[in-house]
Amino acid sequence: MEEKYNKCHLCGFGCNVDRTQNVGVCRAKTKPKIALVSKHMWEEPCISGTNGSGTIFFSGCNFSCVFCQNHEISQNEFGKEVSIERLAEIMIEQQDRGVHNINLVSPTIFVPSIIEAIKIAKNNGLKIPIVYNTNGYDDVETIKMLAGYIDIYLPDLKYFDDEIAMKYSKIPHYFETASNAIKEMQKQVGKCVFDENGIIKKGLIIRHLILPGNIIQTKKVLSWIKDNLDKDTYISVMAQYFPTYKAKEDDTINRKISQREYEIVEELVQNFENGYMQELRYS
């Protein structure tokens, strides 16, 4: 496992850092760091269902989003390091709470450790599906490592244009990296499969957050999905954006999306057979 961290290429940055000794862009070494373990009721309906999703929020991030709602976790290193064995125990504990799945949130930078924990957890009775909830900036080889361990991929596809990705998240060649990763995800898990209660058991759902003043990014992202992935691909378009953290300093995104912006995207979503669009709320 350690060799996967020695010259780290887990994400699109490809820092080539020996994380047993130092840290790269993600500010993480090799030991999994967890900020929160919860029974989450506010994911997509097919993920949270009635019993909730067993989320494990990892600390650290390879992004530096100016609008990050969880910047204490992602950029300020909030959290506690745990052993691989303890991570496996947490997965079992979540299953014992009756959740529908294990939801690994921001897992990319700890993938080698997560794989080892999944092996242990499955040997100890873990049976529920595992969700890989990622910002999408995963190296393709990282996704290939996960084959057979992940049941449900839940990636973001945030931006289409690199200049916008750099402006808001400080990430180079984002779309190329994320789109290639998503293609590999779909290759692995295929079409979405649901149980009799509508809870997803296997598949891919692509998330996209609408940013105010950046509807062109949403148009381009949705167009790419439509033109390049299976026609029955599930999407989840989110309207929950609100200005926080450093976004308050940028006039373009220092507001929620407008009703008109929402309506434009809502019309685009009608072109898809499957998926979700979050309601627009101002309260």
Protein model, in words:
The chain has 283 residues and is an alpha/beta fold. The protein is 33% helix and 18% strand. It has ten helices and ten strands. Helix 4 packs across helix 5 and helix 9 runs parallel beside helix 10.
- Overall helicity: 25-40%
Q: What number of structural domains do the residues give?
A: 1
| Alpha carbon gap, first and last residue | 47 Å
Instruction: Write down the secondary-structure element order.
Output: HEHEHEHEHEHEHHEEHEHE
Poorly predicted residue ranges: none
CATH class: Alpha Beta
Can you say what the CATH homologous superfamily is? Answer: Aldolase class I
Question: How many strand segments?
Answer: 10
Largest sheet: 10 strands, mixed
Quick overview:
This protein is of the alpha/beta class and 283 residues long.
Summarize the SSE layout with pairings.
Elements: H1 3-6, E1 33-40, H2 45-48, E2 53-58, H3 71-74, E3 80-81, H4 84-96, E4 102-105, H5 111-123, E5 130-134, H6 140-145, E6 152-155, H7 162-169, H8 174-189, E7 193-194, E8 200-209, H9 215-228, E9 234-238, H10 259-269, E10 274-277
Parallel strand pairs: 2-4, 4-5, 5-6, 6-8, 8-9, 9-10
Antiparallel strand pairs: 1-2, 1-3, 7-8
Helix pairs in contact: 4-5, 9-10
Considering the chains and any ligands shown, give keywords for the structure.
283 residues, alpha/beta, TIM Barrel, 10 strands, 33% helix, 18% strand, globular
